[in-house]
Specification:
Radius of gyration: 22 Å
Distance between the termini: 60 Å
Strand content: 25-35%
Largest sheet: 8 strands, antiparallel
Oligomer: single chain
Shape: globular
CATH superfamily: Penicillin V Acylase, Chain A
Strand order of the largest sheet: 13-12-11-8-7-6-3-20
Number of helices: 7
């Protein structure tokens, strides 16, 4: 119940647009703690069930894609434009606001949940991509050390830290190793991260017993728990899956044949658990062909991610009514790193929208943030029939 009260109070704070500078230090810490808990303080049954995939086009364009799935409530979904030179400071456990300071060496476009500081997916002007994925019940951050608060980053701000400071995967690995990552809400779910650059290299970052562990991601897929190495091992359980249709065969004296096309995928799991989504994504991604360029790869990944749209009722605890919003998949984003194009669609508007990074001068643009949907209603194109 406390988790839902935290969420409700946080929503009221945002709706009233309270200016934290008007409050005493104590009140600031209380409000920060409540807002930080909005995402991470919810029931594990309502945690994010995101699916990430990626592909390289024939022309070398690297394209990253993912869903954001949250069935606990409708979230304040935002895009954020961060200029070069923008200053940020990390939140700390229990409402502290004096964590690591960092200044954006690279401008970036981020997609955030609930607060503009909580960027969960983004691309910087060096074409480095980073994204946060929930990792419930697995992983463990380092214990918070007040003596290292200047080197401490909140998990919900690590994407912003990476995008602000690094141009390549190698740089990100070395930089992240020097920092302590902590939860802004003790007891909440941990996270893990996908980091990729325009070369096509990508790694998964997981914190195991307080240590940053990096795994090369050759399969191009990430979901949630268990850990990434376990997910790769689990793929071996589906070695029988193949493209196309099984030929007929005899079973004793009984002739067998495929009932319809696509029987090579028989056994591909279709539920929404993280292991099943990982297997399904891995096989669909790696058996459906390579596209010509970044744009066609982006369209292809949007189509593949249709297989991972989570109905809102699927993420609702038993005995509760699902929320009054269209989907637990609140938005889907596809980023063409080579060409600087960020495409997204939302549960309210399935039309694809574009943020073109080539049109942004990150040296002069002002910091800005806005909702992903200005109107929460699916537009419908009317077809006019002439008589």
């Amino acid at each position: 119940m406390n988790e839902y009260l935290n969420k409700l109070i946080s929503r009221l704070v945002i709706a009233l647009k309270i200016n934290l500078n008007r409050f005493s230090v104590m009140k600031k810490e209380i409000v920060c703690s409540l807002v930080a808990s909005t995402l991470v303080g919810l029931s594990p049954t309502q945690s994010m069930a995101c699916t990430g995939i990626s592909a390289k086009a024939k022309d070398g364009s690297q394209v990253m894609a993912r869903t954001i799935d949250w069935g606990g409530s409708e979230v304040n979904n935002l895009y954020t434009i961060v200029p070069r030179g923008h200053h940020q400071q990390s939140l700390l456990p229990n409402g502290g606001t004096d964590g690591a300071k960092f200044t954006a060496q690279y401008g970036y476009v981020g997609l955030a949940m609930d607060r503009q500081e909580f960027v969960v997916e983004g691309v910087n002007e060096a074409r480095l991509s980073a994204g946060l994925f929930y990792f419930p019940d697995y992983g463990k951050y380092v214990a918070y050390d007040t003596e290292r608060k200047e080197h401490t980053i909140a998990d919900l701000q690590l994407v912003s830290y990476i995008l602000s400071n690094f141009a390549t995967v190698d740089e990100a690995i070395e930089g992240v190793k020097k920092m302590d990552v902590v939860s802004v809400y003790p007891g909440a779910s941990t996270a893990h991260w996908r980091i990729a650059d325009k070369s096509g290299r990508q790694v998964v970052l997981e914190y195991i017993d307080g240590k940053a562990c990096f795994y090369e991601n050759e399969v191009g897929v990430i979901t949630n728990a268990p850990g990434f190495e376990w997910q790769l091992t689990n793929l071996n359980n589906y070695i029988n899956i193949m493209v196309g249709t099984y030929p007929g065969k005899m079973l004793g004296n009984q002739a067998l044949k495929s009932i319809g096309n696509g029987s090579g995928y028989l056994g591909l799991p279709g539920d929404f658990t993280p292991p099943s989504r990982f297997v399904r994504a891995a096989y669909l991604l790696n058996t459906t062909g390579q596209q010509a360029d970044g744009w066609h790869t982006a369209l292809h990944l949007f189509h593949l991610l249709n297989n991972f749209d989570v109905p809102v009722a699927c993420d609702t605890p038993a005995g509760q009514q699902p929320g009054d919003y269209p989907s637990a998949t609140q938005w889907t984003v596809v980023s063409d790193l080579a060409n600087g194009k960020i495409y997204y669609r939302t549960m309210y508007n399935q039309n694809i929208r574009l943020i073109d990074m080539n049109e942004i001068d990150f040296a002069t643009v002002k910091f800005q943030s806005a909702p992903l949907d200005s109107v929460k209603e699916q537009p419908v194109e009317r077809i006019v029939i002439s008589n």
